[in-house]
User: What shape does this take?
Amino acid sequence: MHIPVVNSAKTPDGQYDFKPIFSEVAEHLNSADLTIVNLETRLAGKEFGYSGYPLFNTPEALAKDLKDLGVDIVATANNHSLDMGWKGLVNTLDNLESANLCHMGTYRTLEEAQEVFVREVKGCKIGILNYAENTNGIPLPK
Assistant: This one.
């Protein structure tokens, strides 16, 4: 979510509506048995400032809009996982959960990370792994 994309979702009342951006694929997102997306930004909150490349932070309204569009699971581990630091990572997970979106890839605790992410779809159990090769030079938190 580069800043021109974020700004295009801003409504006259200062809120954000990302659904129109996805209008061309909305039917596909909603009709799939399981829709998984890679969140290549953080949803850390307004207090971090919304930003694009190289350190991404997008309004948390994106989470609710993704849920409304039919997204089931959000993969959060990628090179931008720590763009807003540890607190930004935790806020992102909190915002996804507030939108009733499942997520995997980054976690708040070792215990969360050790839980195997499995979903059942039409009687078939699916295990999903999500890893990141790097964090663009941002050190990993302890």
Notes: Residues 3-127 form one domain. The beta strands are 36-38, 73-75, 102-104, 118-121, 124-127. The two ends are 28 Å apart (CA to CA).
